[in-house]
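Open question from group meeting: does this chain pack into something compact, or does most of it stay loose? Before anyone orders reagents, we agreed to write out a predicted structure and look at it together. Recording both the input and the output here so the notebook holds the full record.
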Amino acid sequence: MREINEIIVHCTATPPNFMADATPAQRVDEVRRWHVEDNGWSDIGYHYLIDRGGQLLNGRPISKAGAHVKGHNSDTIGISLFGGKGGTKDQAFEDNFTPEQGETLRKLIGRLQSEYGLDLKISGHQEYANKACPCFDVRRWLNNRPVRTSAVQSTTLQASATAAVSGATGVATAVSALNGTAQIVIIAAACVGALALIWIMQERIKKWAAGDR
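C-alpha cells returned:
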C-alpha cells in the first residue's frame, strides 16, 4: 500500500469540445494513448479524470505511483480535469471547467481526505512546474468553499443525534405526568418534529457532499 501525502490537480490541456462525439471512456483511452505511445509510459499518468459533465473516471490504479509530476509521483494522487485550453488546440490555456467538474472534484477530494487523512496536501501542477496547468489556483478555489469530509459529517451528525436523544428523554418524563389525551397530542407533535429533523439532517448531508456550508 502506497503512502499518500498529497493530491495534485491537473488539466488535460484540451478544448471544451475535445472528442465531442466520443464517450467519456473513449476520451480517457485517448489520453492513455498519448501517455503510452507518445511518452513511453506504462499507463495513463493520472489516477482519476473528471469529464466535462462531472463524471469521475478511473485512470492508473491508485495502488501504483502515477506519472503526472516529475519527482513527485511516489506519494501523490494525480487528478486531471478535461479542458483547460481554448476553443481550438492552438489557443492559450484558460479556466473553462464546468460547475459539474468542480463539484465532482470537491467530492473526490473529500473522499480521499477521509481515507488518507484530513492533513492531505492539495496542490496544482503549476506549483511544481513552469506550466499553466491546471489553469486555476487550486488552494484559493478550495478556500472559497472548503470541502466537507465524511469524518466531519459523522462528528456533526453524532452530536445532533445525542442532543435529540437527550431532549427526547426530558420530554418523555414531562409527558408521563399528563392525562391520556394530552399525551396523544404531544406524542403526535413529537413524531412530526422527529420527521422534520430527519429531513433537515438529510438535506445537510446533501449540501456537505456538494461542498456547501
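Observations to bring back to the group:
The mean pLDDT is 80.
The chain has two domains: 6-147, 151-210.
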